[in-house]
Amino acid sequence: MQRRLPVLALLLAVLSPAAMALDDAWPTQTVRLIAPSGPGGNPDVLARLLAEKLSSKFGKPFIVENMPGAGGILAANLVAKAPPDGHMVMFGDSGNMAINPALNPNLGYDPIKDFAPVTATAQRALARSITSPWRSLPSEPASNSCTCPIAAAQRW
Length: 156
Hints:
The chain is mainly α and 156 residues long. Helices cover 37% and strands 8% of the residues. It contains 6 helices and 3 strands, in the order ααβαβαβαα. The radius of gyration is 19 Å and the shape is globular.
């Protein structure tokens, strides 16, 4: 149930009467949901779940287009250059909105100037194997010799 809460929140926000009153004419054409991953990736699965509900609610097709490659840079460039009419949206994440711009200033898009956040749709968790000696990131393995790179980096 906890994993469904962000999706339910998005649907409530998008489908609420207040949200619909903002612009009764939208969408006027097919809405393209760009998933910056291959089929079966997290953005793809989430986009397909939402596309069906949104299509039935708004009476216009919401289609999912997968655009994997370059860590989301290809998808972000496509959406950044699209007309600002709300008919193309991307499932952005920290990779294409924060990490890529920090590593490469010449991406062809600016996440601040070219994008506007709509809503949070999902949360991710960091999981471990039940046989892993780490219980949380700050903790060390039972042997007391820290070989976990994340935990070691936190001690610096």
